[in-house]
Amino acid sequence: MQKNNRSRKLSDLKIIGIGSPFGADAIGWILLDQLQQQLTQAGLLEQEKLSICFAKHDRPGPALLEYLQGSHCVILLDALASEQTAGSVIELSLAQLLQQEGLCSSHGFGIAETLALGNVLGILPAELILLGIAMGAAGIQQNHNLIAKQALPQIEQRIMAMVSQKLKPDFPER
């Protein structure tokens, strides 16, 4: 007999802000704070059916793998160097991330390389997506709080859809 996935409480959903407290790298952290506030106001953090964990990590590199352990579903929030309009949200699945090289990193060993290592070791969560926030052509010269404000509705909508899906019963009622 299979166990109901709802019995698993060890961080059903983990939302991780990647970056640092400095400049454009702070976007993931800013969004994480705003998102946590929105989900709290919506009462979703008080749901008994779903455990949501929020964490900030300063350019974690391979240490990210340790933070992913024990998680079923992970959402990474990070600033992306991109020519797309500043504040645009770029969603990348785990499969897409595993095909990337040098994604999101100016620090040498970035998210894509870390996830490739985790994939080889077989320790990645069942579900993982990156919600990247485009910094636009000007990148570091942009107003980071404004970019976060522009991206928040789309990120919030995507995460709310994921949370709603996870709160649905496993089996249809008869």
Automatic annotation (TrEMBL):
The keyword Ubl conjugation appears for this protein: no
Biological process, per Gene Ontology: protein processing
Keywords, in A-Z order: Aspartyl protease, Hydrolase, Protease
InterPro entries, alphabetized: Pept_HybD-like_dom_sf, Peptidase_A31
Molecular functions per Gene Ontology: aspartic-type endopeptidase activity; enzyme activator activity
Similarity-based family: Belongs to the peptidase A31 family.
Name of protein: Hydrogenase maturation protease
